[in-house]
Amino acid sequence: MSNRGGYEAAVKEIQARNQPLLEGFRAWLETSDASEDVIEKHMDAILFFAEYLVYYEPLKRLDMTIGPDFGMFFSDWFPRQAAWSSSTGEGEYLAAFKSFFGWMGETGGISPEVATGILGALVDRDGPIPNQDDYWIA
Questions:
Q1: What's the domain count of the chain?
Q2: d(CA 97, CA 102)
Q3: Angle (deg, nearest 10), helices 3-31 and 36-53
């Protein structure tokens, strides 16, 4: 198998493992008071972040996310890949991430400690995270 074939297989595996999380989050949003517009924006943000997680090595599933992933996402990937990005767009993404990773922590998709670390990284976010080592979760 070529290196490209191995990468593509790994991405497909990750996408398959992410799918139940995405479906569960959508179902949870649909039972909340969120409008269809908010649901779609949240899902688009999480799907865009999931794409980022498989773009660079090491490839990651959504449930493998840690705080520093957001620093690189917002300081590098988001501005380059989202030509439409703005501070409003970043705020919408932060809201989606807080909802998704809060839901993941509540439902056991990630441990409560990891959820707390991720939510802390998102709450503390004021521009690119200056020292990503401060956000590693032990």
A1: 1
A2: 8
A3: 160
